[in-house]
Model the fold of this input.
Amino acid sequence: MENKNVDQKIDIELPEEISNGVYCNLAIITHSNTEFITDFVQMMPGVPKGKVRARVILHPHHAKRLMMALSENIRRYEEVFGDITLDENIPNFPLNFGGPTGEA
Done:
């Protein structure tokens, strides 16, 4: 009988044009019944218009796994570096683009 819980190695390629990443300071999350869409936005001080730097579309199962992975990594980070405190001076953006609303 084959063991289905055996760790499998995954070969992942990171193209050079993506390897440096992009800076984003706002995430806008919306969803439908079949997918979660996250737009990663860069807002610049004094500029009222932001620019979407990346869009990631996930199946709901993968969105939940991402949430769990982020929660676990934040827990590990805070164990080493202390609690991450949220700046109360940063406004919550009342964003609604006509679809289901989410939070970032």
About this structure: The first helix runs from residue 16 to 19. The mean pLDDT is 87.
